[in-house]
Amino acid sequence: MFDQIAHSYDLLNHLLSLNIDRAWRNKTAKLVPAGPPEQGPILDLCTGTGDLAFTYDRVTKGAVPVVGADFSREMLTRAAKKAAAAGAGERVRFVEADAQALPFADGAFQLVTNAFGLRNITDTDKGLAEMVRVTRPGGRVAVLEFSKPRNPLLGRLYNAYFRYLLPLLGQFISGSRENAYRYLPASVLKFPDYDALAEKMRAAGLTEVRYEPFTFGVATLYVGVKPGAPGA
């Protein structure tokens, strides 16, 4: 399904979010900044076409290596082309990987991020456990995910847009044979958010878990710390 929509993925992300998705990624990189290069690289899991990976490359001025991992080969092909066009091919590399069985050593990364992809992992708990495993002690895990606005009026408008208009626009532009843009709202509406997702992160072994809603709760950033002293 994701391979089929790779050709229109960036266009639809920006169009259907009214371009706010760029601001969400920028804010994520600001609120969860990378540490110095000696703390290790950054992993952006479920990277898609690499937008969050490129955001971290830009804000660190290329000083911290970034790895983008995804299970969709077509998404990664487009991400690699974007990296080459931006002159970031040496700094940002992409790996085809299963989020539930990552091909990385324990504690390999100072920061592991995941933007709008956690709900697409078959077993959310296993995906979180893998994210924690590959994070160094003292490092952080950051999840940016859609959520459901708590304001009743905004919630009704959001549901109408998400259930009806977004799928129509998405299907028309992407031409997805597997109704990808009907899957999107369905997956968001049934996925745990706010305290429920924060609790899952704690169960995966993270501490100091907090979350911050963006744009009245349309998206939410969740952050947790892996216990232990750095280098432990």
From TrEMBL:
Q: Which InterPro entries match?
A: SAM-dependent_MTases_sf, UbiE/COQ5_MeTrFase, UbiE/COQ5_MeTrFase_CS
* A GO molecular function held by the record: demethylmenaquinone methyltransferase activity
* A Pfam family that the UniProt record links to this protein: Ubie_methyltran
Q: What is its EC number?
A: 2.1.1.163
Q: Which UniProt keywords apply?
A: Menaquinone biosynthesis, Methyltransferase, S-adenosyl-L-methionine, Transferase
Q: Which GO terms describe its biological process?
A: menaquinone biosynthetic process; methylation
* Pathway of action: Quinol/quinone metabolism; menaquinone biosynthesis; menaquinol from 1,4-dihydroxy-2-naphthoate: step 2/2
What is the enzyme's class at the highest EC level?
transferase
What is the annotated role of this protein in its UniProt record?
Methyltransferase required for the conversion of demethylmenaquinol (DMKH2) to menaquinol (MKH2).
Name the chain's protein. Demethylmenaquinone methyltransferase
Native species: Gemmata obscuriglobus
- Source taxonomy lineage? Bacteria, Pseudomonadati, Planctomycetota, Planctomycetia, Gemmatales
